[in-house]
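Batch 3, record 17
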Amino acid sequence: MVAIKPKQLALGLATLAVTWGVTLVGVVSAQTLTLYSGRNEALIGPLIEKAKAELGLDIQVRYGDTAELAATILEEGQNSPADIYFGQDAGALGALQKAGRAVVLPASILEKVDERFRSPQGQWIGISGRSRVLDYNTNRVQARDLPRSVWELTTPKWRGRVAWAPTNGSFQSFVTAMRMIEGEERTREWLTAMKNNGAVVYRNNTTIVEALGRGEIDIGLVNNYYLARFKREDPNFPVAHHFTRGDSGSMINVAGVAILDTADSLEEAQAFVEFLLSPESQRFFAEETTEYPLVVGIPHPPEQVPIDEINPPRIDLSNLADLDGTLSLLQEVGVL
Ligand SMILES: [Fe+2]
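Prediction for the assembled complex:
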């Protein structure tokens, strides 16, 4: 005896209706869109309220950590109440895709975003872009002395001057990218050399940028949107961005969404994704987070270097899915 959930029944009826060319008005109406969000409520709460009003949907949000919520969806399997997943790391989206849990998005949605920032299989799409960057104290480091690659940070010149946050999800994605680009062995070498060169551990990106401002440390491996928060409070905050070229130090990751195979209504889920890609929502992210809007034609935040001036490594961001491999490597070399 197979238990059929009401949502499957409704979906089945809707499918039949489509097959028979009949319209079943009311059968799948008044549904709740359930979003699992790795983006926090303080940030996207107002946007969700707007979506409810504009789309006329009842939207329920479960907030949590990006990696943990993706794992929860995998554990819940076909019983997951989630319709949509919103994560702030392409690796987590890639993990859902690899497990066969993300449905292919329609071309009308996919084509809004440059192909670098969406799944090549069309199973997730970036909503905003977040680059890795080296932030540095402009009083303590001369622009001409800045490293051209993250490898230079392992030389004696930078001994004890570099900050990193090994427990941070974005840092871990950066390490995953390095494993993809340079291989396991070279990444192990880099991590070990950094550790031996006295890389200083901080709790997260915010504390690194704070410490840079105080001159406590000279250069830090962070994401691009932290500095803008400090600059908005103090335009003279003595920290600036520096991008390495073509290595994982300048990787552009995304916060993005996937519609799950447990979605009750593809139409409603797609309407929500389209809402996130509307010019208004894109401007919201650019203004609130100073992340990069990913829809073509929306201006980049004034605080950030235009995205096309960055030289990120060319990678399929879905492949950032192997977080476990990265965590083991970080533990193995004693960084975690
Ligand atoms: Fe962050």
